[in-house]
Design goal:
Number of helices: 7
Helix content: 25-40%
Distance between the termini: 49 Å
CATH class of the largest domain: Alpha Beta
Oligomer: single chain
CATH superfamily of the largest domain: Cytidine Deaminase, domain 2
Order of helices and strands: HEEEEHEEHHEEHEHEHEE
Number of strands: 12
Strand content: 25-35%
Radius of gyration: 21 Å
């Protein structure tokens, strides 16, 4: 009985340790029924992992820390880079706060599959978050912080969400697509697009406005899914100061939004929302 209890305690300790790596507490402003309160929210951690093969950078993936070796092993298998049964030699090259940043996999040249010749194939699919970024230093965006002087009431958000919902025809038929919509300062719908991938939908609306020469009027970006760092970066480059998401936001998305001067709002549904960064854009409300 004692040994069972010790084993259970050990498993629980490991679980707590892993969860603490995978989540992070952030202060946010929660709004419900037009009243607000400051809360501490748990966000899923999004962190970059650079994968080297034979000491050469191969790819960067955004993931939630934990099970990194399993992630790499599965990725190499899926991409036809290494399909042998023998175990690979992994080496942790760099860590930060006990989170892996760079891991090297040693594979003999004779065992490298054809997929190795097509770098970044995995991150070219529709769910890609950082296509084309091979090294950690490539993740930085060197531009000035957004500083648009305007404010808005949260009451307008419901109207914009309804407009986006009305045009989600693919989702209505299939239930399997994401949507992104861009509105101007007066909440006029400038563009809405759907795609299997969240990031693709954002690229489509930005591209649509570039073609129409209307991107300078973009003020609000609404997305139907969760927000990762990549969507925040896309909004920043397009100079869109407000992102409104129906679903959750990752830790890195919040970090980047704060850095870039973007108002990031998540869990926007049923008269509720959580503001994670730059609430100065929003008309003040009374505390609950």
């Amino acid at each position: 009985m004692v040994s069972i209890l010790i084993g259970t305690f050990f498993i629980q300790s490991l679980f707590i340790k892993f969860v603490s790596m995978q989540t992070q507490k952030y202060e946010a402003l929660k709004i419900a029924q037009l009243k607000q309160e400051v809360i501490t929210d748990n966000l899923v951690v999004e962190s970059a992992l650079q994968i080297n093969i034979n000491q050469e950078p191969y790819t960067v993936v955004m993931r939630t820390p934990n099970n990194d070796l399993e992630l790499i092993r599965g990725l190499l298998f899926a991409e036809d880079i290494y399909k042998k049964n023998e175990q690979l030699k992994f080496e942790i090259i760099e860590q930060e706060n006990k989170i892996n940043k760079i891991i090297n996999a040693t594979i003999s040249k004779g065992h490298l599959g054809k997929g190795y010749l097509n770098k970044r194939t995995l991150l070219s699919v529709s769910s890609c978050g950082i296509c084309g970024k091979q090294e950690l230093k490539d993740l930085k965006v060197d531009e000035k912080k957004l500083n648009k002087s305007f404010s808005f009431s949260i009451t307008i958000i419901k109207k914009m969400l309804q407009k986006m919902n009305n045009f989600q025809q693919v989702f209505e038929i299939t239930g399997g697509s994401h949507a992104a919509a861009i509105f101007d300062k007066k909440q006029n719908l400038l563009s809405i697009k759907e795609d299997l991938g969240r990031h693709n939908a954002v690229d489509k609306v930005v591209g649509d406005l570039l073609i129409k020469n209307k991107l300078q009027s973009a003020n609000y970006l609404l997305v139907s899914g969760r927000v990762s760092y990549e969507i925040v970066t896309k909004a920043f480059i397009a100079k869109i100061p407000v992102i409104i998401a129906i679903s959750a936001c990752s830790s890195l998305a919040v970090d980047f939004a704060k850095e870039f001067g973007i108002c990031l709002i998540g869990f926007t549904r049923n008269e509720k929302m959580t503001i994670y960064s730059n609430p100065n854009y929003i008309t003040k409300l009374e505390h609950a």
